[in-house]
Structures are given as C-alpha cells and as structure tokens.
Design a protein that fits this description.
The chain has about 220 residues and is of the alpha/beta class. It folds into two domains: about 5-120, Rossmann fold; about 125-220, Arc Repressor Mutant, subunit A. About 40% of the residues lie in helices and about 25% in strands. It has eight helices and 14 strands. The protein has a five-stranded parallel β-sheet, sandwiched between helices. The protein has a four-stranded antiparallel β-sheet with strand order 8-9-10-11, with helices on one face. Strand 10 and strand 11 form a beta hairpin. Helix 6 (about 150-165) crosses helix 8. The longest helix has 18 residues, at about 185-205. The relative contact order is 0.10.
C-alpha cells in the first residue's frame, strides 16, 4: 500500500483528499505546515508527497528545494492554485516530479500519482555497459569499481541511456521519464544532464561520455 504525505493547510481540502485516497487503498498522513512536513519526512518513509505551495510558515517551493539540497529524492507532486507559468517552472526546477493545478478532479490526481509511483519503480536487474554497472534496486552505480552517488532523476537518466547505450535517446524520451507534465521545458534535461556528466567525469574522466547529438538527443559512449 503506497504511503502518501499530503502537505496542505486547508483542512477541508486535506480531509477530502485523505478520505478519497484512503478509499483507493493509499495510506495517508497529513501535514499542514512546512516545518511539520519536514519533521515527518525526516522521521518516516513515504512513497509520494502531495505538496501545496502556499503554506502558513513558508513556501512549498522552498521545502521541495531544501529536500533536494539535503539529498532527499522522495517523489513530489505539487498541487497548487497558482497556475502561472513562472511558478510551474519554479516548481519543476526545484525538483518536483509533476505539477497539478487547482481545481482538479480526483481521477486526474490519482492518475498522476500512480504514474509517478509506477515510474519510481526501477528495474530490478543489474545493468552494465563496459566498466559501468548499475544496480537499480540498491541504487548503486559503479564505474571501474568506484562508486558514483547520483540523485534519483540522474539515476533514471543514466539507466535510460545505458539501456540504449550507443543509440540516440531523444530529449522528449528523457523528459517523459523525468516528468509527467508535457508542458515542461527541455532545459530541465540540460540541467540534470550537466550534473550527471560532472559526476561521471569525476570518476571515469573522459572515457565515459554522454554526447549531445545536435537536434536529436544524447548518446552514452565509451571512448
């Protein structure tokens, strides 16, 4: 049973969401402030956080960013009445997996939640390419027997590139793995790719490369 944390300061909304999700076989816990949510996430395991932006003691954007900066890659779905493009982009760039605008229907919410949860279920078998080995179940990446620490989205990109090693993987395909919102911009791919390249280079040097194929996408290669 997936464990969901709802971070919402409106008691009517949080109660409605809790009842509906519990009826759909989710285990639900509620926090109404940013600090309360931080403490709960620090002490307990959740499969997904449904996070409002406007909270009494701060912004959900800051909470998301702080979690990512602390190395916590728990899946996050923003649920907010703020529908302007700038805020949506800030939400995604802060590390969220998707952004749902209020008002919304429960069927849409559950569909987005299930898609995130399904995507977060990484393959169980070990993946190898040359001296690169990925154990998705244990979230362990090694290059020439040296461990590389990756964030969740970086790991998802590397798994995708490794499974298609030598072939071009399009930006659209990478975006579909990273996010469930088709409106996101591909500059988010560039940001994650830049971080991933630096981490791989710190261990493998120039031997393992993620090459950009102009206008098409990326390709993982050993040189």
């Amino acid at each position: 049973m997936p464990r969901i944390l709802i971070v919402e300061d409106d008691p009517q909304i949080s109660k409605s969401l809790s009842l509906n999700l519990r009826f759909s076989d989710f285990e639900v816990k509620v926090a109404c402030t940013m600090n309360e949510a931080w403490d709960i996430i620090r002490d307990e395991h959740f499969d997904l956080v449904c996070l409002d932006i406007g909270l009494p003691d701060g912004s959900g954007l800051d909470l998301c960013q702080n979690l990512r900066d602390a190395g916590n890659d728990i899946p996050i779905l923003f649920i907010s009445a703020r529908t302007d493009e700038a805020t949506v982009v800030k939400g995604i760039n802060s590390g969220a997996d998707d952004y749902l605008r209020k008002p919304f229907g429960m069927d849409e919410l559950k569909a987005r939640m299930n898609k995130i949860l399904k995507k977060f279920t990484l393959p169980s078998s070990v993946i190898s390419f040359g001296d690169l080995t990925i154990d998705p179940a244990k979230r362990i990446v090694t290059i020439m027997d040296k461990m590389v620490i990756l964030g969740r989205k970086e790991l998802e990109i590397l798994i995708l590139l490794t499974k298609k090693a030598g072939d071009i993987v399009t930006r659209d395909k990478i975006l579909s793995v990273l996010y469930d919102n088709a409106d996101m911009f591909d500059r988010t791919v560039d940001s994650h790719m830049s971080h991933l390249r630096k981490k791989l280079r710190s261990v493998a040097g120039p031997a393992l490369q993620i090459n950009c194929v102009y206008g098409l996408g990326y390709r993982l290669e050993w040189k």
